[in-house]
Design brief:
Layout lengths: L1 E5 L11 H10 L7 E5 L2 H8 L4 E4 L1 H7 L14 E4 L18 E3 L6 H16 L2 H10 L14 E5 L3 H12 L3 E6 L10 E4 L3 H4 L5 E4 L13 H6 L4 E5 L8 H10 L2 E6 L12 H4 L3 E3 L11 H17 L15
Parallel strand pairs: 1-2, 1-3, 3-4, 4-5, 6-7, 6-9, 7-8, 9-10, 10-11, 11-12
């Protein structure tokens, strides 16, 4: 198989390097027969894509290179695209993807980091850190005391790689974890799991709520004003999914009013968040710039291992492990 790795020209932290590829092959010697090329410029891309059967690249490059109708002419031998991201909502509605081209994500790469970030965010909220950050900027010494996480209830919306990892960490700290997912299959970290259609029923129990689901037409605006108001007074929110999962104006309004006790978000609409945006000024809201789940030490190694596992499955006639289903959006 001829594989081309196209790195963004401006990528300084996460480019996939020949050395990383060589190390991945050493971990998976059955992949030694793969032919691979690397580029970060236009000339290298054009030269490689005439023969490439598989493309490994960033979601934004796929979005730029393959508008509707571009394939197969733009890459006549292409049969597989592996994106170094888990969430591919930017590529929806997938009407650009021919039936003969398989689209894969790197789901599974983000779990360890997301679990630690999610736990950090819960601890920050439990200990009033967004409030103290506001007080520090004002030079105010205003003590607020806090209780431990054990025995408190968190609702985790989405139990895939991200949400599942957060749920496991929360359970380790003694929290009562309620899961919300597309179905009602149980999860070992959750005391119970409800389908998304029954989410309203569990919101009044959730002192903490974590959004960790993919952004799809079914989850766009999932946590709207009405649902935020169903949370108990003083509830605290975490979003490590996508900014489009919640109503940002309602979030700010309910933090201002005191109905919500604090929030930590790693995502926003738009990204980057403009300097004058209301969210920067909302008391009790702590913002990080979309970095919660990406570990620069392990990210590419794990992504390449996942790629090789999918190629191994394909060779054995098994289903692709990371295939994106356009109808589901992930």
């Amino acid at each position: 198989m001829r594989i081309h790795v196209q790195n963004p020209a401006d990528e300084a932290i996460f480019p996939i390097t020949p050395a990383q590829w060589a190390n991945a092959v050493r971990r998976s010697p059955d992949m030694a027969d793969l032919q691979v090329s690397f580029a970060s410029d236009e000339a290298g891309y054009q030269q490689a894509m005439a023969e490439a059967e598989a493309l490994v690249t960033w979601t934004r490059i796929v979005h730029e290179r393959f508008p509707r109708g571009a394939l197969p002419a733009a890459a006549p031998k292409l049969r597989m695209i592996f994106c170094t991201s888990a969430g591919l909502d930017r590529l929806a509605p997938f009407d650009w993807l021919p039936d003969e081209v398989v689209l894969l994500n790197n789901r599974g790469t983000h779990g360890a980091k997301a679990g630690e970030y999610g736990l950090m965010a819960l601890l920050m909220l439990a200990n009033h850190i967004p409030y103290f950050a506001d007080q520090q900027r004002q030079g105010q010494w205003q003590p607020r005391f806090a209780s431990v996480l054990a025995g408190r209830t968190v609702c985790v919306v989405g139990l895939g790689t991200l949400g599942g990892a957060v749920a496991e960490r929360a359970k380790q700290f003694g929290m009562h974890v309620i899961g919300v997912r597309g179905g009602s299959a149980p999860h070992p970290a959750c005391i119970r799991v409800v389908p998304q259609a029954e989410m309203d029923a569990v919101l009044p129990e959730a002192e903490f709520l974590v959004l960790a689901c993919p952004l799809t037409p079914q989850t766009q605006g999932l946590l709207d004003r009405r649902r935020m108001e169903r949370l108990p007074p003083g509830a605290k929110l975490v979003n490590i999914g996508r900014g489009g999962l919640w109503d940002q104006e309602a979030l700010c309004d309910l933090l201002d009013s005191g109905h919500l006790g604090g929030a930590v978000t790693d995502v926003a609409v738009p990204e980057p968040l403009p300097p004058g945006h209301r969210m920067w000024r909302t008391p009790g809201l702590f913002i990080t710039p979309h970095m919660s789940s990406d570990d620069p030490i392990t990210y590419n190694d794990q992504s390449l291992d996942i790629l090789f596992e999918n190629i191994r499955a394909m060779r054995a006639g098994r289903p692709w492990l990371n295939r994106v289903e356009p109808g589901r959006g992930y």
